Amino acid sequence: MRRSTILLAILAVGLFVLANSFYIVDARKKALVLQFGQVKAVKLEPGLFFKVPLIQNVVIYDGRILSLDTESLEVTPLDDRRLVVDAFARWRIQDVVRFRKAVGVGGVALAERRLKRILTAATREVLGSVNSGDILSADRVKLMNRIRDAARNEAEALGVLVIDVRLKRTDLPEQNLAATFARMRAEREREAADEIARGKEAAQKVRAEADRTVVELTSEAQKNADITRGEADAKRNAIFAQAFGRDPEFFAFYRSLRAYETSLKGDNTTFVLNPDSEFFSYLKTNRAASKVAAPSTGDVSQ
After folding, report:
1. Could you give the count of Cα atoms lying within 13 Å of 194 in the half-sphere of its Cβ?
2. Is this structure's pTM higher than 0.85?
3. 232-256 pLDDT per residue, tens
4. CA–CA separation, 258 and 261 (whole Å)
């Protein structure tokens, strides 16, 4: 019984020693073999490996690309227009030996805290050297590359490689939004007022041009009408003169009839005239009839 107990104890110790003598490195991991805190081996390839139990221990690190989000920070560009910036980075452990010496037992958590400080300092330095318009524009890849390069140089001491840095958000602080919106609204209102003034000026020019064209056309039409009317009056007067020259008595008779027609219009026309007035000469004599009829008699006798 005692021998069986001893054998079981030896077997258990053997199994424990055997279990602690081998370790597996995954394809996504990197491993360090430490002996009393000193690096004895670096395992970068996946597989099953042996270590001295109880003396050596293995530290596993993630060999994949990791992400890191920074906290929101305020930056002040060259034009003193403060901005709130959020950034994130992609990084991985490149030199596990240097990484172990830099962070010790703190591991990835301590490395992330130090990387955040490096990224914050690089972001403030790069964005503080340009205007806010460059930061807010769509073409800011050069700025992000500058931040990445600056952070990469600092992160080499940690044994990590900063692969990429991106700006997620670049906004104005909350306390500045109202003032900025008010200024933008004022600028747009000023531009609208300028456009309205230019539109009114153009409308006045068009209206003045139209008025001038109307006056010119009206004057030209009036001139043509006066010319036509003058020519018609001249033609009429020539006809009248020709008719008067051919038969003055008939012309006088015609004018008297026109005067009667014009004067005796209406229901209550009253004239106070001398009965011997020349106005009624063709109403009380047959002078015109005898003179008009005389040529006919002569024509018949011929």
Report:
1. 6
2. no
3. 988 887 887 777 777 777 777 777 7
4. 5
